[in-house]
């Protein structure tokens, strides 16, 4: 059974004060997320990611289409007990402490009394807020609020977790912790559906990703599948002041600074380039991808031209 | 009561307490102490009348201000700050949220009124040196004031479910003022003819009849209140507040939380 099945879901708002005009936030979307999968929903700001998540949470109503979560209609109240949701840039009641907030949400989610305090303590530990548990949220930083947001999303042990930009506002350490948390959720057999515009996070975590732009799905599939047709570029750095003929024939731009040479070449030519350096007895210092294949694929989907190659849903 | 409604209500009460709403009691205590001392010195034989009138009017106005200014933010503030998202993504129905919010603010007003009532009775004891049988009617007047709060809270919540806080405050306060003259409006309707009469009568019965719930003057003059009147006013206020609340739920059930 699919964890999330979206069929023709779309949303059009009427904007304007006197003369209302339709504005399409999401074109008919078809998508399927399997159970136990970590699914990345990629797109720039305003692409329709948050609208999709709000539709699934029943916060806005679809213009057309429907969705099923764990085999039940998305607006079935029984579904809500089995899903967790972290909104984008979450804001919580600032007059309560994080412990009180989690207590409130646990009660609303129907977590039994005996289990409640144990779950709350576990969540506070898991997101690193044990020492701030009795501090009012008005004294929390943006990063700490994001951690509270993640804790409330997984507090009631949901089967499917929806995270809207979970790394937003976090420092590198915080981002790392959220990545570990998502990996832990996957390990626990949870389905994670998260939106992001940070491609490295998606590439590191996701089994599959979907790319959305201007309210339209541009591609969906496993990262390797989507990027099969995309060739990335690699920056090579070697010691010396000589550029082998191989690089000249590739047309690669090279720069000499001091005793180091840098050149950017297509990823496909990497092995041949390293062989060329060896032949000329030049010492390779580093080989770094300039852009990951996913970034190249993503950028290709952002172009106004018809959808680029990829596996569509 | 549904447990989720009770949790939302108790959180709303906690918000009011932590946002120092009950601090108004300090202002009220100062007002009542000052009034009791002043009235004791300058009034002859009408100390009770002045303290009851002033005390109950202050209870009513303090409560109305709280009901309107907190009520108008009950839904709109939750939408604006997006605190609602994490509540409605749980097994909470939208109507449960509205009812919970209503009961939370109503509970806050009841607690607030209780402490203010204690203040009024203490001031009364100070100026009269003893309680009399007619003072019991003050409890009925206070009960009617609470019924007024229920209607105003429901109205503020209704406006809050579709309008901005500023417009909601204007609408709610305007209805409170018009409703306080509802009996006069009905009298005016009776004097007109034709379509005007029909429209004026409809308007007079549509606005909440706060004047029927205001018996401050009669209890200050030690007049008794009929049991049937208490019953009718109770039924009227509960039905009116419920209908307004249903309106708020109907609007909120269809609202996109952008």
Commentary on this structure:
The complex is a heterodimer of chains A (about 325) and B (about 260). With about 325 residues, chain A is of the alpha/beta class. Chain A folds into 2 domains: about 1-225, 3-Layer(aba) Sandwich (Rossmann fold), CATH 3.40.50.300; about 235-290, Alpha-Beta Plaits (2-Layer Sandwich), CATH 3.30.70. Chain A is built from 11 helices and 14 strands. In chain A, helix 3 (about 100-110) packs across helix 4 (about 115-125) and helix 4 (about 115-125) runs antiparallel to helix 5 (about 140-155). The longest helix of chain A has 16 residues, at about 170-185. Chain B has helices at about 5-20, 25-40, 45-70, 75-80, 85-90, 95-130, 135-160, 165-180, 180-190, 195-205, 215-220, 225-255. In chain B, helix 2 packs parallel to helix 6 (about 95-130). The mean pLDDT of chain B is about 90.
């Amino acid at each position: 059974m699919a964890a999330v099945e979206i069929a023709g879901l779309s949303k059009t708002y009427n904007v304007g004060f006197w003369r209302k005009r339709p504005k399409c936030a999401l074109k008919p979307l078809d998508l399927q997320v399997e159970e136990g999968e970590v699914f990345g929903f990629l797109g720039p700001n305003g692409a329709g990611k948050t609208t999709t998540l709000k539709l699934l949470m029943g916060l806005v109503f679809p213009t057309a289409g429907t969705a099923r979560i764990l085999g039940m209609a998305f607006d079935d109240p029984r579904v809500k007990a089995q899903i967790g949701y972290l909104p984008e840039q979450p804001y919580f009641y600032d007059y309560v402490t994080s412990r009180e907030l989690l207590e409130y949400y646990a009660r609303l989610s129907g977590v039994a009394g005996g289990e409640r305090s144990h779950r709350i303590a576990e969540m506070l530990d898991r997101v690193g807020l044990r020492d701030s548990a009795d501090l009012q949220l008005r004294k929390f930083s943006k990063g700490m609020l994001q951690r509270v947001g993640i804790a409330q999303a997984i507090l009631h042990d949901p089967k499917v977790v929806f995270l809207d930009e979970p790394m937003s506002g976090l420092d590198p350490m915080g981002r790392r912790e959220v990545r570990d948390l998502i990996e832990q959720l996957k390990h626990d057999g949870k389905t994670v559906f998260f939106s992001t515009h940070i491609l490295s996070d998606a590439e590191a975590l996701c089994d599959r990703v979907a790319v959305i732009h201007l309210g339209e799905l541009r591609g969906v599939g496993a990262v390797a599948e989507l990027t099969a047709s995309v060739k990335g570029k690699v920056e090579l750095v070697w010691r010396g002041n000589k550029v082998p003929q191989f690089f000249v024939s590739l047309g690669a731009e090279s720069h000499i600074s001091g005793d180091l040479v840098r050149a950017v070449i297509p990823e496909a030519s990497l092995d041949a380039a390293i062989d060329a350096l060896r032949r000329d007895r030049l010492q390779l210092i580093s080989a770094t991808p300039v852009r990951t294949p996913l970034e190249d694929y993503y950028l290709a989907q952002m172009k106004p031209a018809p959808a680029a190659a990829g596996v569509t849903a | 009561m549904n447990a989720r409604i009770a949790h939302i209500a108790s959180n709303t009460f906690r918000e009011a307490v932590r946002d120092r709403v009950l601090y108004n009691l300090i202002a009220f205590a100062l007002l009542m102490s000052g009034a009791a001392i002043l009235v004791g010195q300058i009034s002859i034989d009408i100390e009770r009348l002045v303290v009851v009138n002033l005390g109950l009017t202050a209870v009513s106005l303090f409560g109305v201000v709280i009901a309107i200014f907190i009520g108008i933010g009950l839904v709109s503030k939750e939408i604006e700050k997006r605190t609602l998202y994490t509540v409605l993504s749980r097994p909470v129905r939208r109507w449960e949220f509205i009812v919970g919010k209503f009961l939370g603010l109503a509970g806050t007003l009841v607690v607030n009124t209780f402490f203010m009532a204690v203040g009024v009775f203490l001031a009364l004891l100070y100026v009269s040196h003893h309680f009399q049988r007619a003072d019991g009617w003050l409890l009925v007047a206070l009960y009617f004031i609470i019924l007024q709060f229920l209607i105003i809270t429901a109205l503020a919540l209704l406006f809050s479910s579709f309008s901005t806080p500023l417009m909601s405050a204007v609408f709610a306060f305007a209805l409170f003022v018009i409703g306080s003259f509802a009996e006069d409006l009905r009298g005016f309707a009776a004097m007109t003819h034709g379509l005007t009469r029909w429209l004026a009568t409809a308007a007079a019965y549509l606005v909440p009849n706060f004047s029927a719930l205001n018996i401050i003057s009669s209890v200050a003059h030690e007049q008794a209140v009929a049991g049937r009147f208490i019953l009718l006013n109770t039924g009227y206020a509960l039905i009116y507040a419920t209908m307004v609340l249903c309106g708020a739920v109907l609007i909120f059930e269809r609202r996109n939380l952008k």
